[in-house]
Amino acid sequence: MYITLFKSKLHRATVTEANLNYVGSITIDEDLLEQADILPGEKVQVVDVNNGQRFETYTILGERGTGIICVNGAAARLVHPGDQVIIIAYAMIDRKEALDFKPRVLILDDDNHVTALKDHEVHGQSH
């Protein structure tokens, strides 16, 4: 049996751009994608901490080292530059494998620099 677990998360990324006229997706700095183990084209869920909006899209490579987090297409109406978002990727994992699986959680600052890398979350801790 397979179950769905979160495998990667960019915690409190700051939206740098919202581009309504692009076809769709979310552009993410290539360094952040690599560190989070998220592939270009991978499905992600985006949760806006500022307004509660939640949506799914796919990732595209952003310029390495820029900290870009750009929501494109129709979803650009759901966020504003400066909003903090949580970007989550999920994986289907065999239940036995899931017992030992460790996700990659990147804690970001306001400039989308990684301040911490975690492999679990603890209730009651904000970071």
Automatic annotation (TrEMBL):
Q: Major location, coarse class?
A: cytoplasm
Catalytic-site annotation from UniProt: S25 (schiff-base intermediate with substrate), Y58 (proton donor)
Which reaction is catalysed here? L-aspartate + H(+) = beta-alanine + CO2
Task: Tell me a Gene Ontology molecular-function term this record carries.
Answer: aspartate 1-decarboxylase activity
What cofactor(s) does the depicted protein rely on?
Answer: pyruvate
Extract the InterPro entries matched here.
Asp_de-COase-like_dom_sf, Asp_decarbox
Q: In which pathway does it act?
A: Cofactor biosynthesis; (R)-pantothenate biosynthesis; beta-alanine from L-aspartate: step 1/1
- What EC class is this? lyase
**Pyruvic acid (Ser) modifications at:** S25
- What does the note accompanying the cofactor annotation read? Binds 1 pyruvoyl group covalently per subunit.
Family note:
Belongs to the PanD family.
Protein name according to UniProt: Aspartate 1-decarboxylase
- Lineage of source species: Bacteria, Bacillati, Bacillota, Clostridia, Eubacteriales
Its gene is panD
